[in-house]
Amino acid sequence: MKVIVYSKEIEIGWAELTRFDPPMGCAAGDFYPNDNYKTIQAVIRQKNDCTGTLGNYDEIKFQNICEQIKELALSVRATSQEILNPAGGVHITDYADELENEPDARQLDILGLDTAIFNRLFPGEYEKYENQFSRQ
């Protein structure tokens, strides 16, 4: 499912999402930024430096970066213009520098979509998830 990604109502790119955790209402996919993304990219990438992924874990720096990211007001809309409002937020992970701009170097995650919305956007996916356990 294609979604358009925004920061403060400015389009910054798009993603093609697939479900990855139906009970939690989570979906993810490769993120394809446009030129507007460059204005926020540094803030997004700073998160990598303090989570222990690329640098040392630094709780204070992490909390400060999270506040800055929150101020970016990241949001997603379906191509139908429906605003998706995941309870756990919209998250961009950007390893473009480290992965030399490989197509999957940036990822978008949306966490905590309402069950009814998730089922409408990803029809049959929750049932597929549940069925994998009933075969055991």
Average pLDDT score: 91
| Bulk shape | globular
Distance between the termini: 30 Å
The helix-and-strand class reads: alpha+beta
The number of E-state strands comes to: 8
SSE run: EEEEHHEEEEHH
The profile of the biggest β sheet is: 8 strands, antiparallel
Radius of gyration: 16 Å
Number of structural domains: 1
- Extract low-pLDDT stretches: none
Secondary structure: helix percent: 25-40%
Total helix count?
A: 4
> What proportion of the residues form beta strands (DSSP E)?
25-35%
Short description:
The protein contains four helices and eight strands.
Mind explaining what this structure looks like?
The protein has 136 residues and is α+β, with helices and mostly antiparallel strands. The chain has one domain. 29% of the residues lie in helices and 32% in strands. The chain has four helices and eight strands, in the order E-E-E-E-H-H-E-E-E-E-H-H. It has helices at residues 41-50, 59-71, 115-121, 125-134; strands spanning 2-7, 10-16, 18-21, 26-33, 74-78, 83-84, 89-94, 106-111. Strands 1, 2, 3, 4, 5, 6, 7 and 8 form an eight-stranded antiparallel beta sheet that branches. A hairpin with a 4-residue loop joins strand 3 (18-21) and strand 4 (26-33). The mean pLDDT is 91.
